[in-house]
Amino acid sequence: MSNLNYTFRFKEQHNLLLVPAVIAFLERNEVPVNSHENEVTLPEHHVPEVVNFFEDHLELEHIVFKTEQTDWSPLSNLSGFLEMGWIDEIILQERVECHFQPIVRSDGALFGYELLARFTDSEGNPIFPNEAFAAAKSRGRLYALDRMCRMAAVRHAARLDRVKAFINFIPTSIYSPEFCLRSTMQLASKLNVDPQQLVFEVVETEQVDDVQHLKNILTYYKEKGFMYALDDVGEGFSTLELLKGIEPHYMKLDRQFVTDVHADANKQRVANAFLQQARKIGTIPLAEGIETKEEYDWLKNAGYVLFQGYYIGRPQAEPASQDALNF
């Protein structure tokens, strides 16, 4: 994590003619600035006062901005970008805990837990995970947030005894597995966590564009002795192309095909096709998002091996024992 610098690029003749005035304003107010042709770069905490100057003197529709971690955006997006700054504090203060959601086998025995990140603001109020990850993505902090969550999950996994710990990660946040994942591996070793206990779970499976990059990450995990899973797999997924050479240890059926599967012929078709594909490549099928006994019974009878969802058990701050499971 580092303090963000913003670069502003000016377009159109009126704005370009006033670039020297912008630089003079910044220097007069002792704002540290770097300038190059039609661009100026300055620290984030000076941005609001500088934008006030822009509003009085420049044509705002012809100004774009970016940070070191983001692409160019119109100036109209700046206020929303600045408002997401709270995510930096979350990361710097590591305000994250993990909740344990149980995963069971078809015989009802506890198989493991998915470790789900939970965030809080400075007053201890909960922040929804989708809000946190959206804010991190918008500010170019996705790698930092994803790393923080992975490290927290490994620490929580050290509390478990002989059961699997499913740990989410976002492949697009990892630019080099050898460098980005080194600290995760070192922490697992320091805490004496058996690599075979950890299952690194690819989230946003449907959004994977660079298949080779994903393969490189999973190959790295495999070489280090860890297992991995693909999340949210369904009929819109280019199964044959993406699974070729990846061979995940586990695949999770997208929850949209689990909900009311017992009463929906189309969802049953997808669930059966998923099951056949899993058997073909030798991976273990897991149905997640199960909320009713009817869904659980249908999937169990169809041949699914592992199960997860509110019907089994909700995420909790402490791992539920076998006796505490809901079903």
Describe the protein.
This protein is an alpha/beta fold and 327 residues long. It has helices at 13-17, 19-28, 47-57, 78-83, 86-92, 129-138, 142-157, 177-180, 182-190, 211-223, 239-243, 265-281, 293-302, and strands at residues 5-10, 34-36, 39-43, 63-67, 73-74, 96-105, 110-120, 126-127, 164-169, 198-202, 227-233, 250-253, 284-287, 306-308. The strands form two sheets. Strands 6-7-9-10-11-12-13-14 form an eight-stranded mixed beta barrel. Strands 2-3-1-4-5 form a five-stranded antiparallel sheet, with no helix packed on it. Helix 6 (129-138) packs antiparallel against helix 7 (142-157) and helix 7 packs parallel to helix 9.
Secondary structure topology:
Blueprint: E1 5-10, H1 13-17, H2 19-28, E2 34-36, E3 39-43, H3 47-57, E4 63-67, E5 73-74, H4 78-83, H5 86-92, E6 96-105, E7 110-120, E8 126-127, H6 129-138, H7 142-157, E9 164-169, H8 177-180, H9 182-190, E10 198-202, H10 211-223, E11 227-233, H11 239-243, E12 250-253, H12 265-281, E13 284-287, H13 293-302, E14 306-308
Parallel strand pairs: 7-9, 9-10, 10-11, 11-12, 12-13, 13-14
Antiparallel strand pairs: 1-3, 1-4, 2-3, 4-5, 6-7, 6-14, 7-8
Helix pairs in contact: 6-7, 7-9
